[in-house]
Design a protein that fits this description.
The chain has about 140 residues and is an alpha+beta fold. It is built from 4 helices and 6 strands; from the N terminus they run βαβαβαβββα.
Length: about 140
């Protein structure tokens, strides 16, 4: 099986969705500060590494990634936050992070900065190695 066979193309993400990013609540209205979204806010508020799992939860690859991330949750407990982002239901986030193929993981440091991205199923060992480079041990 080729690497491209491990990735599912998202047809729902279109350039027009990017326009929705400008509709996100910003500033002192009680929502997010400029340049911040739910994922950045979650990483900052929890002061932990966040792994955003962009997918549908239906395809074989997404299910495989989800099972691996459950192992990550169990091993890293309160040290890492894993957040599923359903690409069809959360299109503004999908567009903001330019996710065009799934499964797709985005790693955030505790300050909310994106530190790494991966398209396709990422093994537990590779996720653990990435977390270790970010200073997080199980």
């Amino acid at each position: 099986m080729t690497a491209s066979a491990n990735v599912v193309r998202i047809s729902a993400v279109r350039s027009g969705i990017a326009l929705l990013l400008f509709l996100l609540p910003l500033g002192p209205s009680g929502s997010f500060a400029a340049g911040e979204d739910e994922l950045v806010s979650l990483a900052r508020n929890k002061n932990r590494v966040l792994i955003a799992d962009f997918g549908l939860g239906l395809c074989r690859q997404c299910n495989a990634q989800s099972e691996i991330l459950e192992k990550v949750r169990a091993a890293y407990k309160e040290k890492v936050v894993v957040r599923m982002v359903h690409v069809n239901k959360e299109q503004p986030l999908t567009a903001r992070y330019q996710v065009e193929m799934i499964p797709h993981l985005v790693f955030f440091d505790p300050t909310g900065n994106v530190t790494f991205r991966n398209t396709g199923v990422m093994s537990y060992e590779d996720i653990s190695a990435r977390l270790s480079r970010m200073g997080v041990k199980p």
